[in-house]
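Re: the pair you flagged

First of the two:
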Amino acid sequence: MPLERFNAAWRESYVSSTTARHNLDDATACVFCALANEPVDESTGVLHVSATSFITLNAYPYGSGHLLVLPRRHVSELDDLSNDEYLDFTQVLRVATRALTRAYGADGMNVGMNLGRAGGAGIPKHLHAHALPRWDGDTNFMTTIAETRVLPESLASTWRKVRDAIVGL
């Protein structure tokens, strides 16, 4: 299947403007910064909070159990984290993967980061890592043919499964 391309040359002046750069760095409009101050609760999607990091559900999951691990402080790059923040971030990422393994018993796991807009980050202004359980044969024709993902559970169900697993660690 060939990759579809859409030419939007009219956007060039915006993406290279100072306004666009300002919006990338503006913490006042950051959904992740708002979540960083929310309590651990099914209604917020926040699953775990440490001194400098937290785990939340991905509101637009690729598959069941898709979590995000984030620093609480608004930074966009790994190099922006202090050594203590980096250590905490990676330890919390390990909590997320352990909880997913315990909650889902998956065959594998995708863990990764898309750094910067050019790197594929949907929200490049706030550093975040993805953790996603995977199973042998978990892709199907829906993604290939219909560009659609089928999720067999609700976000509320995911929250309860993973939260129970985190509490049990």
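Second of the two:
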Amino acid sequence: MRGPFAYREGRLSAGPVALAEIAAAVGTPVFVYSADGILARYRDIAGALARERLEATVCYAVKANPHLAIVSALAAAGAGADVVSAGELLRARRAGVPGGRIVFAGVGKTEAEMAAGLEAGILQFNVESEAELVILDRVARDKGLQAPVALRVNPDVDARTHAKITTGTSENKFGIDHAQAGRVARLAHELPGIDLQGLAVHIGSQLVDLAPYGLAFEKVAQLFAELRASGLPLRRLDLGGGIGISYRDERPPEVADYARLAARTVGHLGVPLIFEPGRWMVGDAGVLLTRVLFVKQGAAKRFLIVDAAMNDLIRPTLYDAWHDIVPLERPEPEAPGGPVDVVGPICESGDIFAADRALPPMAAGDLLAICSAGAYGATMSSTYNSRLPAPEVLVGGADWAVIKARPDHATLLAQEWVPRWATQAFRGEVEGEEPQASGSRAAS
């Protein structure tokens, strides 16, 4: 097991709390997070940067897991927030993150989101295009303000990660082309509604090799020095996030080595730095608990059909991602393992968590933990097949609490509205009447 989960007296536990007890009380599927594991990761990266004598702000990438309880715990420990929408900005503020420790990133900010960031007094907008810069200038001037800006530079560096989560090559939609960054920076400096403060770079997610970081950091450091020498008042550098975790056999870098690399490549600039870890902070600190519904022997395969599904954790379907799957009761060392497909109940062949996975003998009612589900799990979930979202539980020490309850179907149905004309039109066709033409008039 990785992260804060381990077998204690034969039962998979978070600290002293047996996960089977949570499953019995809350039901399955259910996400369980370890607050102790998350906070330990924050202390690890903050400590590593401090030991390199870097003036650094760690802004948690809220998109990885935006739950208020998690963001609040990190805010209380001193973390800032990296947000990419007005909703994430609201969550960060509600969780107690000061505006001055919030970075607003994202390639497609709306004018309303720009205004919300200005009103919140955020640390900086990471601007990703000249078009965005011009609109932000106008929004800021309309409010009689200046927008603090870092230009996100696309360094054209291959992060050597999954194609769907790499962000730093010339083919990606993110950032300003490195060759154009100087011109856009000079434009930013001239716009009255813009306070150009620095540069930013982020080359992708789930990086397990320091070499791409080194290339990107060196390129942005050189550009930073050149622009500052030309008279632009750059005073801060955002190095993004993206440190990976070990889902299977990856060997991600030690955070101490990452901090040393940052010190070596950009430390000479002598400016405050921003780091934006997300998955690395919370990924290993979460599991998805699920119960075996049936064991099915097919013509060529044996299936464990479980009550979790791709609507709960889409990463295996979306990215062909590997997640370790372990029983909540420690198997006997001599228990024979057999290849099984672990699948969910959704009507899609892609609803699969593992193929030909070696697991000990399992029976209906047995409990499993899908590991490393703390990042991009619940936040990417849906109600596909009209399935209820899985609840979320946070464990801290010997305490645990449901931090998001499982809704009932009545609650979900109450969010939907059937206009009277829809059913009338249907009845009219059934009864042979001429259906009414469509229009925008509200139903009475």
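The chain has two domains: 5-31+283-412, 35-281.

-B.
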